[in-house]
């Protein structure tokens, strides 16, 4: 097992190329199950989640080939039942349910368990598929879904925290091959949902309204193969932007889409970070003092929950009080206890964290609990005095492509070292650490 060893205090400088978006490529890979023809997907990030999804598609009978960042999938024949252990391990794989059901009339998919950031039920996914006429039952840890022919329907997909991203993706993919028209109200508007709709339309689907709360899908008889380039990862770009600000650096985010990051860039500007254009790219720099800002995570186009932990680190470095409220996932403050080990002063009050910032962080051994918490710990280590050692970094390889190479090219003093498990820090969430969202 590997750890990251970071010597803090170096301002990040230079250019970093933003990879394709993990949360766009996973549902797009699932969508390839909707056709027997080959699909070619470009700018695919090399992540363990992508590898997992590839193995899941192969366990369903598809031919999968990843050549650099180009992925070719041909699902000539699909079995309704995939590898339980693989699917159970990665929550994102739940989005094979809709395509499998639409393509073969039945699907048996393992129920994704909860994870460290929340219970994460899939009731809205199932509600949507049942509205299209599917018969769904949960049995033995599996979702059993059956429908001779899905039928278009009008449905409302909003839940207790608003829209669902993968729920919208699942129902949209199923409706693409249904009889008639489906109207999804309170659909998720995330850029990753829009990218999936573009891919489906490239395959011959008829989807309008992507990016708005009202999605209209006119079902077609069949879909054909298609080629597609995945959008850049706005969460990876935001992570590097915060790292540049936290280290008083200057970084150009090559290929980042500013139009997908308005809420994050707005908060960075409010905090006193300089956000500029550099040709088609974004340049992030910080010279002066930071100002405290309050943040509430919301569905898109609000502030993304996947950047909450990273921004919390920036606020620990900022003199004054800032309040960070998590409205999407009920237990997404796992990083707080680890940041406290680096000397941060953060109190949790219900869904909010009250950050008393301004005291310098000092390096310490810490443990990653989930993907975005790990990214936050890396930023904290880069900004802290002395050495920080982060264990369980497999969490980060799930969602960031070669993050340590990219950071070293920006001047970070950081290396992957073999973990000495006897030295692992004692911390409350040890039991819960499993492969996440
Ligand atoms: C996607 O998860 C992302 N994952 C998450 O990114 C991201 O945090 C999340 O959207 C919100 O933006 C992928 O795309 C693979 P949701 P998803 O369904 O679709 C509740 C990362 O770090 N809900 O939009 O699973 C749910 O519990 C990951 O890359 C229901 O109640 O999230 C949550 O509170 C983490 N019932 C809220 O809705 C349902 O049926 C939003 O969840 C579905 C969801």
Question: In a nutshell, what does this entry contain?
Answer:
This protein is of the alpha+beta class. It has helices spanning 22-31, 48-59, 84-89, 97-104, 123-131, 165-175, 191-202, 234-246, 262-270, 308-316, 334-341, 371-383, 394-397, 403-409, and strands at residues 2-7, 13-17, 39-42, 63-67, 70-74, 106-110, 135-139, 142-146, 154-156, 181-185, 206-208, 215-218, 227-229, 250-254, 274-278, 281-285, 295-296, 320-325, 345-349, 352-357, 365-367, 387-391, 413-418. Strand 7 and strand 8 (142-146) form a beta hairpin.
Describe, in plain words, how this protein is organized in 3D.
This protein is of the alpha+beta class. Helix content is 30%, strand content 24%. It contains 14 helices and 23 strands. The strands form six sheets. Strands 21-22-1-23 form a four-stranded mixed sheet, with helices on one face. The longest helix has 13 residues, at 234-246. It is globular, with a radius of gyration of 21 Å. It starts with a strand and ends in a 19-residue tail after the last strand. Mean pLDDT is 94; it is low at 426-437. Residues 23, 26, 92, 118, 120-125, 159-161, 164-167, 305-306, 328-329, 371-372, 399, 437 line the site of ligand EPZ.
Task: From the structure above, extract its key features.
437 residues; alpha+beta; four-stranded mixed β-sheet; 14 helices; 23 strands; globular; binds ligand EPZ
Give the SSE layout.
Layout: E1 2-7, E2 13-17, H1 22-31, E3 39-42, H2 48-59, E4 63-67, E5 70-74, H3 84-89, H4 97-104, E6 106-110, H5 123-131, E7 135-139, E8 142-146, E9 154-156, H6 165-175, E10 181-185, H7 191-202, E11 206-208, E12 215-218, E13 227-229, H8 234-246, E14 250-254, H9 262-270, E15 274-278, E16 281-285, E17 295-296, H10 308-316, E18 320-325, H11 334-341, E19 345-349, E20 352-357, E21 365-367, H12 371-383, E22 387-391, H13 394-397, H14 403-409, E23 413-418
Parallel strand pairs: 2-14, 3-13, 9-10, 17-18, 21-22
Antiparallel strand pairs: 1-22, 1-23, 3-5, 4-5, 6-8, 7-8, 10-12, 11-12, 14-16, 15-16, 18-20, 19-20
Helix pairs in contact: 1-2, 1-7, 4-6, 5-6, 6-7, 8-10, 8-12, 10-12, 11-12
The protein binds ligand EPZ.
